[in-house]
Automatic annotation (TrEMBL):
Species this chain originates from: Massilia litorea
Stored InterPro entries: Trimer_LpxA-like_sf
Transmembrane segments: 6-25
Designated name of the protein: Polymer-forming cytoskeletal protein
Keywords for this protein: Membrane, Transmembrane, Transmembrane helix
Record-linked SUPFAM superfamilies: Trimeric LpxA-like enzymes (SSF51161)
Length: 348
């Protein structure tokens, strides 16, 4: 009986030590005998190369066809261009479908597998498929739905009400009709709205009169860097050479010009004809008015609205627009990449 208290303390210490050590046993086993040596799976939205899946699918089709003869293999089914597309069992295709020429479907099209066209591709209204790759031009009819990605080496047009949930890319140009939805798109030229006319490249205007007196209230924070704690207004027709930082909202009136970058903690408003030759960074929403131009990248935590006639980047120097939502009016033009993290819509 006299040893009972000592035994109890020993037992309590052993149990406590066991409770403390047990959580580290899996760590010890993993360190001694690693079981997770494979590379981590990267989500499709996180791959930096916007054409990654199109290039991988192209390589897969070429390798499969080269190694399995002229007809088919276990992963690719070939549709001869001489065979009517309407006669092909699209809905029952369990393998990737390769068309050895141009694809023109006039009836309904609902395919559960990716489609490769060795030429142009014309899809009907209401087509449904996970992915599309064509070596020519692609015309996706109204209400087309692509659940993963689509790419054309030439010009790709998406009809009214069409939706591509992930990546939409083209080697020459993209044309998105009104009501179409997108997430991440890339092309040398992106037309929001079906149009054959491209906006003229904006020319750098000569420096105007000196900045108005109220800009002297800005606090210099480096060579050609100006900062304000609150809102900033650059009056119509004036220009600022340098980087403009504001803790509030920045508004560029009509034909105002910034030879540098703009960064606002809240919102940015560009009225008709305003230009920013550098980057545009904003913690709120950005409104880019008619006939405006931004030459550098646009990074926005909120929504970006592109008015008709606005232009992002140039064909010679493409750029990137990234925002939570992108609302682009018909007639807006972008060069490079547009990434809407939540949703992108072409409005009338």
């Amino acid at each position: 009986m006299t040893n009972y208290p000592a035994a109890a303390w020993v037992l309590l210490g052993a149990v406590t030590l066991l409770v403390l050590v047990l959580p580290f046993v899996p760590c010890w086993n993993e360190w001694r005998r690693p079981t997770d040596l494979a590379a981590l799976v990267i989500a499709r939205d996180e791959v930096n190369n916007v054409r990654y899946f199109a290039d991988a699918f192209r390589k897969h089709v070429n390798e499969a066809c080269a190694g399995a003869g002229p007809v088919m293999d276990t992963t690719v089914r070939i549709l001869r261009a001489s065979t009517p597309a309407e006669a092909f069992p699209w809905s029952a295709a369990q393998r990737a479908v390769m068309v050895d020429g141009s694809l023109h479907v006039s009836g309904t099209l609902a395919c559960p597998s990716p489609v490769y066209a060795g030429g142009d591709a014309v899809l009907p209204s209401g087509a449904h498929l996970p992915a599309l790759l064509c070596t020519g031009n692609a015309a996706l009819g109204p209400e087309t739905r692509i659940s993963e990605w689509a790419h054309a080496d030439g010009i790709l047009s998406l009809g009214a009400g069409g939706v591509v949930l992930h990546r939409l890319t083209a080697g020459v140009a993209l044309m998105l009709d009104k009501g179409s939805g997108f997430c991440r798109i890339h092309a040398p030229v992106i037309h929001f709205g079906i149009s054959e006319d491209a906006c003229a490249t904006p020319l750098a205007r000569p420096p105007g009169p000196p900045p108005p007196p109220d800009l002297s209230a800005l606090t210099p924070c480096g060579p050609k860097r100006y900062r304000a704690k609150g809102d900033v207004l650059l009056p119509a027709g004036r220009y600022l050479e340098g980087t403009l930082l504001a803790g509030g909202t920045i508004r560029l009136a009509e034909d105002a010009l910034v030879y540098g970058s703009v960064k606002a903690h809240r919102h940015v408003r560009l009225q008709r004809g305003a230009q920013v030759h550098g980057a545009l960074v904003c913690g709120g929403d950005i409104e880019i008015g008619p006939d405006c131009w931004v030459g550098g990248p646009i990074v926005c935590e909120g929504d970006v609205r592109l008015a008709s006639g606005s232009r992002i980047g140039t064909k010679a120097i493409p750029t990137t627009l990234a925002a939570a939502r992108v609302l682009a009016e018909t007639g807006a033009v972008a060069h490079g990449t547009v990434w809407a993290r939540k949703a992108g819509v072409v409005t009338a």
